[in-house]
Amino acid sequence: MSFTIAIDGPAASGKGTLARRLAAHYGFRHLDTGLTYRAVAKAMLDAGLPLDDEAAAVEAARSFDISEMRRDVLAEHGIGEAASRIAVMPVVRRVLVERQREFSRTGAGTVLDGRDIGTVVCPDAPVKLFVTASPEVRARRRYHEILGNGGKAEEQAILADIIRRDDRDANRADSPMRPARDAHLLDTTEMTIEAAFRAAKTIVDAALEKNS
Ligand code: CDP
Ligand code: CDP
């Protein structure tokens, strides 16, 4: 059976960076589930379809290739916003969650990061982390990330977008973003990437020990 590390948290909390570090360290496969919602959003935008066209969104959710998803292609701010609108539709979530679960069952170990991994996708995962940071710090991180990639951005606009997206993700009826009851909370507001990795590693090592 696959050992799954479930990581959830809001935008730019550092969950993706942490998931990649843990996957590399333990030799586990990693799935950034945010990309699955982004892939559907991009397919809809590219086809010029309204984002609330449920039948088209379900079809897109069934048909994209998970192994072809690339964050650099799907990173755009507008796609993140569109993804969070796609993500309120239960019929679309059902299809994507099933594909994510399938991924979580393959190989010796997996790391999945998103919003509902510990609560819905993998509720039996032996390790659950909920990563947070203040909205201001998260907006600053995203801002520097965009500038670092040669893009242009305005920090206040990013902050407004992050707050709006957090609100939509935390208050939707189906699978709202929230820590699972048995999740470890990791507030990275004042933490470096390295410190967050070390804190998470201690938790994972203890769970692996218990599982062996
Ligand atoms: O996946 P998520 O949107 O939660 O965030 P991320 O892409 O892992 O991190 C967003 C940005 O914050 C990246 O540029 C990270 O390098 C940076 N970061 C940081 O500066 N300090 C941390 N403790 C975590 C992430
Ligand atoms: O990287 P960032 O945190 O900005 O966003 P993301 O992880 O790529 O997710 C984009 C959007 O997809 C989120 O705002 C959520 O609305 C949705 N999502 C979700 O509902 N459930 C997940 N497991 C992952 C993402």
Describe the fold and architecture:
The protein is an alpha/beta fold. The chain has 2 domains: 1-28 and 110-212, Rossmann fold, CATH 3.40.50.300; 34-107, no CATH class. 56% of the residues lie in helices and 12% in strands. It has helices at residues 15-26, 34-46, 54-63, 71-74, 77-86, 90-104, 117-121, 135-148, 155-171, 193-211; strands at residues 3-8, 29-32, 109-114, 127-132, 184-187. It has a 5-stranded parallel β-sheet, sandwiched between helices. The model has no long low-confidence stretch (mean pLDDT 95). Residues 9, 11-17, 141, 145, 188, 191-193, 196 line the site of one cytidine-5'-diphosphate (CDP).
Identify low-pLDDT runs: none
**Which CATH class of the largest domain applies here?**
Alpha Beta
Number of strands: 5
The DSSP helix count reads 10
Mean pLDDT: 95
If classified by CATH, what would the architecture of the largest domain be? 3-Layer(aba) Sandwich
Count of domains: 2
| Helicity level | 55-70%
Beta-strand proportion? 5-15%
